[in-house]
Request: fold
Amino acid sequence: MDERAAFAVFDDFVNGRLPKDAWTHEAHLITCWVALQDRTPAETLAFLRDAIQTHNCGIGIRNTDTSGYHETLTVYYVTAVAHAAAPSIEELFEIPSCGRKAALDHWSRGALFGVEARVGWVDPDISALPWEPEFDAALASSVS
Reply:
């Protein structure tokens, strides 16, 4: 995928045109990578908190304690993508810390997929992250 295609995915996401079947792990990485082009990690996180929840509602995904927006995963991937500093989306897809199951190197399934991690930030319970996530803890605990 080239940069133009990545920006098109982002545009579809922001404008509510990205269909549910296209809202994949790769699409999440793309939206994060594009958002980071002109935002800090903290600004990207704030933007994506709202944008993902809005997008989910538009494609029929409910944001609840058990589905939809996931705060810990969003913080993890925003930080992972920011620290990867990949010059292209194709290179980003190859970085292990951005892989689909990469967060499971740091959290157990029980911790990562529990309600607490979905609605707020939960520190890793297996191994520490190689970076310090950038987020507003007050916002992280009030995600709706």
Q: What stands out?
A: The mean pLDDT is 93. Residues 41-58 form the longest helix (18 residues). Residues 72 and 122 are 6 Å apart (CA to CA). The radius of gyration is 14 Å.
